Amino acid sequence: MVEACLPNTKARIQHFVAAKQEQHHIITLILKVEHDEQTLPNGLEGFMHLQTLFFESDISCPVLPVPDVSSLFTMLKEYLNRIKPATHQVYRAPVVTNLIAQATASAPARSLSEHDANVVSDIFSSLQEFEEATRTQQGQAKLCDFFDRTMVEDVIDFWADEWVV
Questions:
Q1: SS3 for 108?
Q2: pTM of the complete model beyond 0.85
């Protein structure tokens, strides 16, 4: 790394890291570059200068040293495969029990308890199935098997004028 280019390099790296805060980012440094049939100076020295720059400038960004251009793709692919589980975002569905707890005619003053909402979510596979159970004798009997009659009537009253798509 040439000392005259250091401020420009530092500014470009800081801009790169700042622009990619929500995503995973990496800098690759090719250690051995052949240019016009001559090999440029030792890349390991450039790697050490880059690491020093990061340390002194408080820049946090992984650097992947790559032996030569021909191994860039393979090493980058291996690196990304290793970090994939850590960066893979898992979709988390909204907690349906919060919605179930409000499915009473007396809510929000008297919602279902967290336990009762969990029981409902265990009994019925969907909100629609829960709603449909309030409209049939068999479904109402199933609710009465788990809850007192007052609570079941409160749930039935709630769903009387509601529609679930």
A1: coil
A2: no
